[in-house]
Structure formats: C-alpha cells, structure tokens
Amino acid sequence: MTETAALPGFAGRTYLFEVDNGAAFRNTYSADGKRLRWEGLGESAGQWLDVELHVAQVAPQIWFVSWTEDSGLTISHVMDLGAMTVRVFWTYEGEGGRVGELHTGRLQQVG
C-alpha cells in the first residue's frame, strides 16, 4: 500500500458496488485500508477474493485503489467518496491478447 498521511476514507467500511455493466459486489475494506475482500453478487454470487491494495489519495475524498488478482486480472478504481461514485478500469487476458474495460459505478455504504 502506498503510504498516505491519514487512513483512507474507506478503511473499515463496507460498500455495495454496482457497475454499469450489471456486475455487483460487496466490498469490505480492512480497518487499516490495506486489504479488500470483495464478494460477487447476482450472477457472480459465490465468488470472492481477499487482496492487498495499493492506495493513494488524489484529492479530498478521492482515492486511487489498485490490485492484481491471482488470475492475472488487474483492477484500478478511482473512488469519489463525496459523490459515492467509482471509475474502474480492469484488464484481463482475452482472445488475441490483453483486454481492458473502463466502467463507472455507484457505491452505497452498508457497514
């Protein structure tokens, strides 16, 4: 995790994250903001992973958060906790090489 002056604003909290493509997740962040446990909802129900985060604050209430999963999937979020929105970019291995997708989403704090 990239060191910041204060704990990330999402540290110790849980959010429902709804992505513009219909995917939905329950994201639970560790109390120190260094780890994330995501759980798939809807079509992704039953999938989950605990990952180490790389975090940097880019503006008040706005955080850049990134991680790499064992599958090779990489995810980068720009979380705006004031507006409760996320811009997410993920990449994965697809036919013919690496594929990247840019999405938007909404957050709802549930814990």
TrEMBL record:
<dbReference type="Pfam" id="PF22036">
    <property type="entry name" value="MoaF_like"/>
</dbReference>
<dbReference type="InterPro" id="IPR012674">
    <property type="entry name" value="Calycin"/>
</dbReference>
<feature type="domain" description="MoaF-like">
    <location>
        <begin position="11"/>
        <end position="94"/>
    </location>
</feature>
<protein>
    <recommendedName>
        <fullName>MoaF-like domain-containing protein</fullName>
    </recommendedName>
</protein>
<dbReference type="InterPro" id="IPR053892">
    <property type="entry name" value="MoaF-like"/>
</dbReference>
